[in-house]
Amino acid sequence: MQKRDILIGLVVVIVWGLNFIAIKVGLRDIPPLLLVALRFVLTCFPVIFFLPRPPISWAWLLALSLSINVGQFSLLFIGMKVGMPAGLASLVLQSQAFFTLLIGVAWLGEQWRWNHLAGLFLAGSGMTIIGSQQGGEMTAAGFGLVIAAAACWGAGNVIMRRATVGIPAFPILSLIVWMGVVAILPLMVLSLWLEGYDAWVAAWHTAGWTSLGALIYLALFATIVGYGLWGKLLSRYPAAVVSPFALLVPVVGLTSSVLLLGETVSLWQGVGALLIMIGLVVHVLGANWKVGKKRHENSS
């Protein structure tokens, strides 16, 4: 991997890690469902007029949008609103990797590997420890909603695999923008139904420059810039080379939440976080270790 592309990968990691700070700041004045909807409004317009619809059916596009844009982001934002710290949210959300595995095995008949089982056990142990540490900044509702968000993301990942089979060099940014377009109406309806018109009016009057800045960050940097650069990396390198960068996102999320928001992590939450990180590393990179060991043995 060229140095320039490594730098691009690190920029994406930082942008996505700080994304959780922006969510927390935006939620101070804007209701969660409305914040998600406004994010996609700013993401899609006027960019949609310059990006063609991705080469998948409307049914697949709807399924992806409902699982990821509506399901994942709504549950994540609500979870962070009702009591999930930004740093822990950035880490717990990465359990999507294991939901992707479980759903892929059940739906697509994918095979387990030793690193999948080991990673699932380690991360599951970490989740159990964190989930048992309610109180302080984290609530059971917030934790449960972020886990549910991760499950929706995992389902979306499996749907994406099915939807993009046989399509080389898939346009990721185009997909993200068009998924956002499809999500806007359901999100607006949900916001009006669950949060109410009065909440919209209150947000209009109370949202300041910090909330507006957070919204712009979510729409332009976390979405357009982040996914645009990520898509470029995936067009140049195999997914196995690019995906490990995502392991650094919760590191940035946890660190920035402590430094910028003053969040605290208890000893047991730290132990749980460490187990989750180790589980993610084993899950993503474990197969390469086995291959590397075999190559070493063959060369000797």
From TrEMBL:
- Write down what this protein is called: Putative amino-acid metabolite efflux pump
Q: What is the lineage of its organism?
A: Bacteria, Bacillati, Bacillota, Negativicutes, Selenomonadales
Kindly state one GO CC term assigned in the UniProt record: membrane
Membrane topology designation: Multi-pass membrane protein
- Annotated transmembrane regions: 7-27, 33-51, 58-80, 86-107, 138-160, 172-194, 206-230, 237-261, 267-286
The record ties this protein, via PANTHER family, to: AMINO-ACID METABOLITE EFFLUX PUMP-RELATED (PTHR32322:SF9), INNER MEMBRANE TRANSPORTER (PTHR32322)
Similarity comment: Belongs to the EamA transporter family.
Arranged from A to Z, the UniProt key words for this protein are: Membrane, Transmembrane, Transmembrane helix
Enumerate the InterPro entries for this protein: AA-Vitamin_Transporters, EamA_dom, EmrE-like
State where it is primarily located: membrane
List the subcellular locations: Membrane
The answer to whether keyword Transmembrane helix applies is yes
* Lineage top rank: taxon: Bacteria
Which residue intervals define the domain EamA in the entry?
Answer: 6-130, 142-282
SUPFAM superfamilies, per database record:
Multidrug resistance efflux transporter EmrE
